[in-house]
User: Which sequence fits this backbone?
């Protein structure tokens, strides 16, 4: 039996923000009604966590890997391979897997919606099936994911990940032609050329649809990620609607718990996720509950929906779980990264984190938000600090210091390195 305290981590994707003029200089977290998260802060300890360090893409795979204690320098492989893992899509040693968004582009070639209008699942499946009928080959294959979030696999010796692919959600209002895939060096030229050709041909295939184009990005090859049970000796589960989180969980050896009605948007089944977490913590040491809604509405720069999503997250998920689990359960809340409404883009600002652990005396922080948490006793966390705090033994801390002093043993994915070098 594990000696670790049972722990539930609530991850509000993109929940952190900046002061907003319409809120009289307060952030959405400061303005929303969040009694459950405030209670975690009031009864626990707070701080910040750096999840998007310099030198790495500002993407959710990086941020969630940081939260879960991964070594970004040796384990980062890109969203594509993680989402493939979620879908049980096998990747060979010469396969390059890209996340590919179904997007909306206007007649002037400007990106208007990175989500294709939050395309419905049936419509997305039909679009991917059409792309496969028209464009697939022995080297090219599309795979349907969740809504606009899909995959493209390039297979064969001429492909590699030495390409730069910009993030679609960073480029609303920009001309697509200014952000096409490009090679880092001669080794990546064939891959970049095929990606550009596929984007052009897909625009013809999808002409007339709301989601009328594709945007491939975050490509890489399957890599080796150390399991949480090997790192910390824990049995863990993940609850999420989106493939990148479920795939990361699978690679970390976490059991994926699917919840009917979990959509990755504001209409997600909060109560279903809460009940799944309540049931799961009876059998697992660690349950990671991820909600995508705040990220989506933040990218859309919708203040009203962000406030609503934060309050739903707090009351319908966090509060529901808190009311049901044993009082000795450790509860953790944080975002993976900020998405300020001002820009609708991810930033590298450290995120607020609060941990309520029964053995810990509170540190005096009274509310959960970006400002208050900076004053907490946890201080400025980075790297694997949070997971080490929750699960590591003293001997693990000694081993971690020894490992950090050695050179990385695993080659960084060239695709991700390419994005980081932009």
Assistant:
């Amino acid at each position: 039996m594990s000696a670790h305290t049972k722990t539930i981590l609530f991850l509000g994707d993109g929940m952190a923000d900046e002061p907003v003029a319409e809120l009289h200089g307060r952030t959405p977290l400061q303005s929303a009604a969040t009694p459950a998260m405030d209670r975690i802060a009031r009864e626990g300890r707070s701080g910040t966590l750096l999840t998007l360090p310099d030198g790495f893409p500002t993407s959710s795979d990086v941020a969630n890997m940081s939260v879960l204690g991964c070594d970004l320098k040796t384990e980062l492989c890109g969203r594509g391979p993680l989402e493939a893992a979620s879908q049980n899509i096998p990747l060979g040693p010469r396969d390059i897997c890209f996340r590919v968004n179904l997007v909306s582009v206007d007649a002037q070639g400007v990106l208007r919606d990175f989500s294709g209008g939050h395309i419905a699942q049936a419509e997305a499946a039909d679009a991917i099936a059409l792309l496969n009928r028209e464009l697939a080959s022995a080297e090219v294959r599309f795979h349907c994911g969740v809504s606009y979030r899909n995959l493209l696999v390039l297979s064969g010796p001429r492909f590699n990940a030495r390409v730069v692919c910009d993030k679609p959600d960073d480029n609303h209002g920009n001309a697509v032609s200014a952000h096409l895939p490009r090679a880092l060096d001669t080794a990546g030229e064939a891959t970049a050329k095929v990606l550009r050709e596929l984007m052009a041909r897909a625009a013809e295939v999808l002409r007339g649809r709301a989601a009328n184009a594709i945007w491939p990005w975050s490509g890489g090859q399957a890599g080796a990620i150390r399991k949480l049970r090997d790192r910390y000796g824990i049995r863990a589960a993940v609850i999420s609607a989106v493939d990148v989180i479920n795939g990361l969980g699978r690679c970390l050896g976490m059991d994926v718990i699917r919840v009917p009605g979990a959509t990755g948007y504001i209409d997600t089944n909060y109560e279903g996720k809460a009940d799944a977490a309540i049931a799961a913590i009876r059998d697992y040491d660690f349950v990671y509950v991820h909600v995508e809604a705040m990220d989506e509405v933040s990218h859309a720069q919708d203040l009203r929906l962000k406030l609503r999503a934060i309050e739903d997250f707090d009351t319908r998920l966090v509060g529901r779980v808190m009311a049901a689990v044993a009082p000795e359960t450790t509860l953790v809340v944080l975002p993976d990264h900020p998405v300020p409404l001002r820009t609708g883009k991810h930033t590298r600002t450290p995120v607020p984190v609060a941990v309520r652990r029964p053995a810990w005396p509170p540190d005096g922080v009274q509310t959960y938000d970006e400002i208050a948490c900076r004053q907490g006793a946890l201080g400025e966390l980075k790297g694997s600090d949070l997971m080490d705090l929750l699960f590591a033994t003293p001997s693990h801390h000694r081993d971690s210091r020894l490992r950090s002093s050695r050179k990385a043993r695993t080659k960084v994915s060239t695709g991700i390195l390419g994005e980081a070098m932009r």
